[in-house]
Amino acid sequence: MVSALALKQEAPLAGAALDVDDVSHHFDIDGKVLPVLDHVTLNAKPGAFVALLGPSGCGKSTLLRLVAGLEPPRSGRLLEDGRVITGPHPSRVVVFQDPTLFPWRTVWKNVALGLEAQGIIKSERHRVDAALELVGLSSFANAYPHQLSGGMAQRVSLARALVNDPQILILDEPLGKLDSLTRLSMQTEIVSLWQRNGFTTLLVTHDVEEALFLAQRVVVFSDRPARIKADIAVDRPYPRRRGDPRLAELRHDILGLLGLDATW
Amino acid sequence: MPTYSASETLDLPVASSERAGLSTFLRGLRGRVVGFAASAVWLVFGLSCWWREDLGDWSRTNEVAIGALLIAGVLLAASIAGFWSERVGEIVRNRAPWLVLLGALFSVWEVATAKLGWLPLPFFPPPQAIVEVFTDDLPKLLDSVISSIKLQLGGYAIGAGLGFITGVSIGWSRAVGYWVHPLLRFIGPLPATAWLPIAFFAFPSSWSASTFLIALATGFPVTVLTWSGVASVSNAYYDVARTLGAKPSFLVFKVAIPAALPHVFVGLFMGLGASFAVLVVAEMMGVKSGLGWYLQWAQGWASYSNMYAALLVMSLLCSGAITLLFKVRDRLLIWQKGVVKW
User: Fold this and answer.
1) What is the ipTM of this complex?
2) Which N-terminal stretch is annotated as signal sequence (chain B) (predicted)?
3) Do B82 and B208 belong to one domain?
């Protein structure tokens, strides 16, 4: 708890508002135009937890790259607290499906990456320690990434994101490659991190249960080019129970939207 | 019902530990026997020096014999000490087989050259002739070593430094790549020694010409491998760094370069090998000092023992340089798994 407070000290009380305003995007592959996002409009209130759900390869991850500012949209605008997003900024941090830790850096130095890039590591070393403690890996500070298990590596990559006190946390299938037991425990961890720190969270997943267990809203996308098919409020309080009949009901609805309810 | 009785389970460890004890004893004895054998072989080598008159006029036969007997004595002492000290025993066990072989080869060499003359002189000098070079021609040999090291270090440092900078620039900047890449393809594969005739009149001194050639030979592999290292860095690393607020300089120095380092070291290793060749040729052709020149000079006087001595020193220096490079690499790339041990 102490460490969580240490992280929160300089953080704003709530995350930033995110507005995706009529965004379309396409890729040029060998001269052919491949549309990926089709007039997507989406608003997230400060501190909201929104899950983006859709078939594999539908363009959800592209939307996240646009929110992160790694690419500019072909048309439309993205706004963070009313300001147009023009490039990457440490207030919007991404946790990718692969931990992508830098293998030549120790765990500690991986977590310190953002503060080092911003040139404030000298005065803010305590934030790295706090972030590592938050994900329960203080004793691995001097380990190298190849010595970690998949779950530990992903926790380090979470710490590397959280140390920047992001206002928007972007999770791109962060648990997709973990074994199912680790995944369940990390889902609970993500919820508690979100509740403590209050950042706006955007989660891309293709796991319906995960979306329902974690998010306040589940936005369902169509096949590529991605359009918003439905925007479902998950009106259950936290901590949630996986066996909640209301979640099962919603799950059935969502699978129906994805055309997969025949086996339910 | 259990398939074993209590007595069986009690017997088994006793029997196996007895067997283990016996095999340990045998293994220990075998290790020690090889140690004593090594001592004996070196004794034979020492005595072979005194066996009969040398066929030629060599002044260090006695010293070689005494040296060999000293080694035999040390080996004997160490083999005996091995009964008490596990550490000494381990050291002797690890080295004894090689020492046996070396002692035997030296003995054959001594007898075949100095004593019976099976191998023609002066092309095959005996061990005492080479020892004589080290004792009597030491100042000139040392001068040559220092001169070679200076030339090699200067050229290698310049070549490695420029190659690294060029490689990173090509890998990073499309514009630099556009201009430098064709040049690299055109000039790089040319053996540096092909420049020799031009270099020696284009440069003010043979020393600067040789430095240039060594730098050229080093620079090409370092450039290409640094470049390929930087080019092969996964985009995911850049994405991560950028979302965390990294500026371009951070991406170069803290992402691209560390990620490319394993490649860079392959380039440095290849460059080192290429530069040795150029060093020796340059010293033979133009520079009036260094081990290459010493070799050339010795050949001119038909003093083959000096050539063998110089070759031995050269091989030690080259091997030492590579060992040093690998030590530096192991330090810097400690995060890598399973690197080759040199």
Assistant:
1) 0.85
2) none
3) no
pLDDT of residue B338: 56
Do B255 and A102 count as a contact with CB atoms less than 8 A apart?
yes
- Reported as a single tens digit per residue, the pLDDT across A173-229 is 888 888 888 888 889 888 888 888 889 999 998 888 899 999 999 998 888 888 888
Q: What is the DSSP letter of A91?
A: T
pLDDT tens digits, one per residue of B164-197: 999 999 999 889 999 999 998 888 888 888 888 8
Three-state SS sequence of B217-242: HHHHHHHHHHHHHHHCCCHHHHHHHH
CB contact under 8 A, B261 and A104: yes
A216 DSSP 8-state letter: S
Statement to judge: residues B114 and B231 lie in one domain: no
Q: What span, in angstroms and rounded, lies between the C-alpha atoms of B100 and B103?
A: 5
Statement to judge: residues B202 and B55 lie in one domain:
no
Task: Give me the number of domains chain B comprises.
Answer: 2
Q: Are A103 and B336 an interchain contact pair (Cβ–Cβ within 8 Å)?
A: yes
| Chain A residue nearest residue B251, CA to CA | A117
- What is the rounded distance in angstroms from the CA atom of residue A227 to the CA atom of residue A225? 6
Q: How many CA atoms lie within 13 A of A211 on its CB side?
A: 28
Instruction: Check whether residue B172 and residue B319 sit in a common domain.
Output: yes
